[in-house]
């Protein structure tokens, strides 16, 4: 591809597995946009320097994944409301004068996937969110915006769950429980936003959390979603969704933010789904 192609990238550690280059190239092909999209693996201590160098060398936009989302938010000169509420960013844009704008499309991508692709009306639901990291924060706000009746947040480090609930500031709708204090509770929706499936471990959760109609959703996909899917299947869910659709939708939101045009996500999603299973 020629040097005139506009440069974009995704930063993470590790990042070689990322589907983002394929997704953004497919979006660009749809809309006749000429771009180059690359993966950049950078350890946490070198993240900000690497991002600023990328923009200084002509990069126009960057996606950000684990473990850099909170660092991306911290380094930005301007922050969207979605980024501010999450305290994390997955989308960075170069501004005039060397400044960087932070945005977060995780929450919007999640809601678009679960409500439009999977036809789940979130209004009136009781939801359980596992995890309190960057993606979990974005999803928590999005769930409440989408109209869930209650949101319960649990995290292995309970202080992080409490901090997220306090930041949301709706105690009547949003509260926390201890990870080992969920006996007797049941939910319409259980969302896994932990890194257990990525780093290894089991979901030692009560089977009674699920009802006949309950949906389980893992923000991860592929092998990283296997552990939570195993628990959800054993607990009796008929409705398990992984995060592949969310990945495509949040990418489309970032793409629209950069290019002013929203691509058709369904062909890209179907291509990836057929390949990944």
TrEMBL record:
Identify the InterPro entries for this entry.
Answer: Aminoacid_DH-like_N_sf, NAD(P)-bd_dom_sf, SDH_C, Shikimate_DH, Shikimate_DH-bd_N, Shikimate_DH_fam, Shikm_DH/Glu-tRNA_Rdtase
Report domain SDH C-terminal positions. 243-273
EC number, as in UniProt: 1.1.1.25
Pathway terms, separated by semicolons:
Metabolic intermediate biosynthesis; chorismate biosynthesis; chorismate from D-erythrose 4-phosphate and phosphoenolpyruvate: step 4/7
Q: Which residues bind NADP(+)?
A: 81, 131-135, 155-160, 219, 243
Cite the SUPFAM superfamilies for this sequence.
Answer: Aminoacid dehydrogenase-like, N-terminal domain, NAD(P)-binding Rossmann-fold domains
Q: What class of enzyme is it?
A: oxidoreductase
Which residues belong to any copy of the Quinate/shikimate 5-dehydrogenase/glutamyl-tRNA reductase domain? Answer: 120-171
* Residue positions of the active site: 69 (proton acceptor)
Keywords for this entry?
Amino-acid biosynthesis, Aromatic amino acid biosynthesis, NADP, Oxidoreductase
One Pfam family of this chain = Shikimate_dh_N
Please indicate if the UniProt record lists Ribosomal protein as a keyword. no
Domain Shikimate dehydrogenase substrate binding N-terminal: from-to ranges: 10-92
The domain of life is Bacteria
**Record: residues binding shikimate:** 18-20, 65, 90, 106, 221, 250
The protein's GO terms of the molecular function aspect are: shikimate 3-dehydrogenase (NADP+) activity
What reaction does this enzyme carry out catalytically? shikimate + NADP(+) = 3-dehydroshikimate + NADPH + H(+)
Q: How does it assemble?
A: Homodimer.
**Family statement drawn from the similarity comment of this UniProt entry:** Belongs to the shikimate dehydrogenase family.
Chain's role: Involved in the biosynthesis of the chorismate, which leads to the biosynthesis of aromatic amino acids. Catalyzes the reversible NADPH linked reduction of 3-dehydroshikimate (DHSA) to yield shikimate (SA).
Name of this protein: Shikimate dehydrogenase (NADP(+))
Question: What organism is this sequence from?
Answer: Luteibacter flocculans
């Amino acid at each position: 591809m020629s040097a005139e192609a506009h440069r974009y990238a995704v930063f993470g550690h590790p990042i070689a597995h990322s589907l983002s280059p394929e997704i953004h190239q497919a979006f660009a092909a749809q809309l006749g946009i000429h771009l180059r999209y690359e993966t950049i693996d950078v350890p946490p201590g070198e993240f900000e320097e690497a991002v600023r160098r990328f923009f200084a060398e002509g990069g126009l936009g960057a996606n950000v994944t684990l473990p850099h989302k909170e660092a991306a938010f911290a380094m930005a000169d301007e922050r969207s409301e979605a980024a501010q509420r999450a305290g994390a960013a997955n989308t960075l844009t170069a501004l005039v004068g060397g400044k960087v704008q932070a945005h977060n499309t995780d929450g919007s991508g999640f809601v678009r996937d679960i409500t439009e692709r999977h036809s789940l009306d979130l209004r009136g639901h009781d939801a359980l969110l596992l995890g309190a990291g960057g993606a979990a924060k974005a999803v928590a706000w999005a769930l409440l915006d989408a109209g869930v009746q209650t949101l319960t947040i649990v995290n292995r480090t309970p202080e992080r769950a409490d901090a997220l609930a306090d930041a949301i500031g709706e105690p009547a709708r949003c509260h926390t429980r201890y990870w080992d204090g969920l006996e007797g509770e049941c939910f319409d929706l259980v969302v896994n936003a932990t890194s257990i499936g990525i780093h290894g471990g089991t979901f030692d959760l009560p089977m009674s959390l699920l009802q006949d109609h309950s949906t389980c959703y893992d923000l991860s996909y592929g092998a990283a979603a296997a552990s939570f899917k195993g628990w959800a299947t054993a607990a009796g869910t008929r409705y398990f969704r992984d995060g592949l659709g969310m990945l495509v939708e949040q990418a489309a939101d970032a793409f629209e933010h950069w290019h002013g045009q929203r691509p058709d996500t369904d062909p890209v999603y179907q291509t990836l789904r057929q390949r990944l299973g």
